[in-house]
Amino acid sequence: MSPDFDLEARFQSNMNSFLSFYPDIYHSFLNYKLERYELRFDEEFGVNIFDTQTNKYMYAENVFKSSYLQYKRFKSEPQYIKNNFAEREEKIDRFLHTRYLKKLTKFYLEGLEEEELDKLPNTISSMLIFGIGAGSHIEAMLEEHRVKNLYLYEPHLDLFYLSLFLTDWTKILEQLNADEAQLHLSLGEAESDKELVKEIADVFIKIGRFHAAHSYIYVHYTDKILTEAVAEVTKRFHENMLGFGFYDDALMSVGHFYYNMKNSVPLLKSGPLESLKQVPVFLVANGPSLDNDIEVVRAMQNHAIIIRCGSAIGALHKYQITPDFHCEMERCLITKTVIDAVDDPEYVKSINLLALNTVQPEVFPLFKRSIQAMKTGEAGTALYIQNKESNPSSLAYLNYCNPTVSNCALAFVEKMGFENVYLFGVDMGYVGSQHHSKKSIYYSTDSGSDRKLYDASGSELQVAGNFVDTVNTDLIYNYSRMVIEEFLRLQPHLNVVNCSNGANIKGTQGIHSRDLPELKELDKNTIVESIFSKLTKPISDTDLKTFENNLQQEMFADLCDLIVEKFDEIPDSKDAAIAVLEEQLQRLEGFNASNVSHFNDLLRGSLLHTHSVLLNILNSYNSEQESLQRFTEAGKIVQEYVLEMKKEYLESPFKIDLVDDSHIWIE
Fold it and tell me: Taking the model in full, what pTM does it have?
């Protein structure tokens, strides 16, 4: 059974099309030589792909029939990954975002009780295909479905090359182009599964991360490379939904930074300070292993600059160790509450503070002296950068400084110029049941019992340990660990020793605290003084005035009205509905190079959240009309939310968090 087309003619047509659309691929395969796979003609089934390594045909029968039947099975029982939205019970409706996302999620979940999509829809917002093989399944799918964003991964270059003879790539590329679809071709085995995860994450950042809330996943064939790749991608797919942020959070970054400047908290200047290169610095966090290493920290406290991280304040206070700096990154008032729980203001006042510019203003006066650093990706930071008279290029901007204070402290020390870093209590997981230092706020002062302030129910993940085989961790700590690893990969000049008995952190050297080399005693007062004198920039009156003038409140109101207007009518197709969601986020991206770039920072996070729910609503019903009707009804909730944002920005642009949770945290 021979194909009804000329293989060589198809190859030439496909190559010409790739020359037009993707010239790099054309040149890569122009003189390509096969290594493992080859085309063979089978008397019974016709053309097939033969694996010379296993001496087996890739397809059980005819290439085209096998591929088509597989596609039809997928069409009737599609596999997909989606965000599992759940209604959250909040004791305090402190945020607009919480209130409206809860309302939107409730609407979505109630709809699922009536009917749920059980087949592949005509319009697909996102499709990940692992394995191109002969490629016929891709051609078959695109004949019947419109795919807005298509990701193709083929680790074996031989197979993609052979698909050029078998599949009508000209038709595929022209159709995708006519549909204004996004195609990402990943050809050749990824350097690692971790790199593949990052590549896919970058694709979602490009096309709009809300698409990750519901994405179809098609595995064409199974081999060791693809099986392991798919397992890693699906295991970590939820990371595409992390770190969105939301409007209230972004507005607080404006208000908190404004009052921190008004209170004359100096800004961290860009370093590095050469004199700090050889100075050892201890980052002391609140992991359970801190209790075992505390005597080493105590014995060496005059031999290193000590930076304490967040909730470790209670532990070090009880251990009677005074650090040189305390570090904070959380913007809610709870940060002050945890510090107040120490119940020793004189102790706190003897310590210097390193904090992000987003931290609640009432935190800074508690300390001896303070430095605030600009966090990138924040509305407040974007507002300040627009003031060129303030020489924003002279300042340090912190990346990779969340989700935990350990991330923040590491970002701080790198910007200041420290290169020799020692980690204590930076566990990012735990062995056994103890999840933080026994001397911290998480455990009762009197009885030592767990106060249940940490929800351990999400700690079902297991990762490689630093000194043991595996440790338990949760999504946040695991994400924090991965952020540190990526940060260290980008900062190879840092020498980081991990003394923590927690998760293994790539890029660090695991050494037990008892085995640390001797360190010489430091003149710590001189070092701290040099940081304040050489690495800080005072706040000027111009900084404040320009910050106020750059708010552009009326323009923001107009933008909100435009977003609201787009949800007034029922879209005429699912494709049109997805286009509305994409267009709104693309408009925000368009502000990035303007003098209102903070608009993107204010709205992006909340719209990624709401649009993720809306996308799931579109993919929840067999009837497209029903999907569009429910989409429009849900859009009314989004309209209410956006109008509330508009109202608040016009009336209270310098919002600060004043919700008191002390009844929860203080014994």
Answer: 0.88
